[in-house]
Amino acid sequence: MMVDWKNLLNGARRKDKVKKKVTGKAQETRTEIERDYDRILFSTPVRRLADKTQVFPLERNDSVRNRLTHSHEVSNLARSLGVALAFDSKIVPEELIPQRNLPALLAATGLAHDLGNPPFGHQGEYAIQSWFKDNQSERKKWDDGSLNTAMKQDFLKFEGNAQTIRLVTRLQLINDDYGLNLTYATLAALMKYPTGSDGVSGNGDVARKKHGFFQSEKEIVEEVWKETGLQEGIRHPLTFLMEACDDIAYAVLDAEDAVKKQLVSFSDLISFLEHHGDKNNAIKTVCNNACDKHKTYRSQKLSPAELNEISMQMFRVSAIGQMIRDVSATFLKEKDIIMDEKFKTDLLSVSKSNKLCQVLKKFDKEHAYVNRGVLEVELVGYNTIRGLMDFLWDAITQRKNPDELNSRRNTPFASYAYNRISENYRRVFESDSNNMPVRYKEMQLLTDMVSGMTDSYAISIYSELKQYNHEH
Known about the structure:
Blueprint: H1 5-8, H2 32-41, H3 44-48, H4 67-89, H5 98-112, H6 121-134, H7 149-156, H8 160-171, H9 184-190, H10 218-228, H11 237-260, H12 266-276, H13 281-298, H14 304-339, H15 354-367, H16 372-397, H17 412-419, H18 423-430, H19 438-451, H20 455-471
């Protein structure tokens, strides 16, 4: 069944159903989807991204990217694709204001796509997952028989993508249960993996590769699908574009950062691409363009570091331009299959830039991600998160009255540690409207707190709790 753009760009909000919209207070010139971008931009989780790892944890070089700069760059690339589709391709009916809503929706999802990621990047996700796996049947046993398989998998396979949906629908504002109260359109497009943890599949369907929401938000997600004409396992068409922009940013910009940190040189990158490129046309075009610029800059009086940096800037421009053009062309070529809900892979993998992207990712993996400094700080992050989870789990579960979630804790340390958990997370945990099983709520308070931390705050509070734990 083909989806309809009128539903896909649904500008209504969940809160509208229970509370009438206030009109007449101010003249609003923005569309509802444009307002979503602004709500996300000014939210606290966006600011926290400035101290969350992209590739290089706790990086002191201001020119090297963090999670915030990455998110702004993904948002910018996605908006550019939205502008091209709205003005050049005209795939959306004019009455839906595509010239404004397509760029705004793609920019909003690009900005928000990493909000739920824990500190220390993917190493943080792995630390959370491994803690639950290792403590499933040990001293801190959490599997008390009250949870179904999907509820357990929410934590054993903890996902930053699912935490993003939870953050924007529940956690961000504390005066109601609607979070940022984003439009149905934005919530649907933000869901990279529209399936629960019990629907994950290894059959190659990109939408079911991981889970994109927790069981605690299942009813919200089902409401979003109903309002946008989607269903489990079916992505919003614009999600494919946002995903491609994220992959492009990772592939190209991580290589640029590796050069900025002087782990490798511009010439190293070009040699690697030429060696592994198999005479691929996209790779040849990008390398030739970058090398022509490099030759020009060599005639100028630049230091080796300056020559490397400006050559990489030109490489970045050429590579991103090539990949964006190819992704846009692929989306237009496949749009009927996408709208018919039958497109099961990602856009880059079937674009002419697939080889370029894959070789760049191989370069990043071999020359940036295995750098000793990166591995050392990742280890610190891994140990920090697991240590924090030990302390906070005791603080959450050691209650004098197990049936009262806000009961006094059993020890002074547990009381202190519980009080260090953010108030709005505790409020959601203790709320009467939270109808999840007690054990699920305890585990979710733990992951809410840990995933909301920045890198430096996680290290700081771990050191603080470790000190007080030893004293008591």
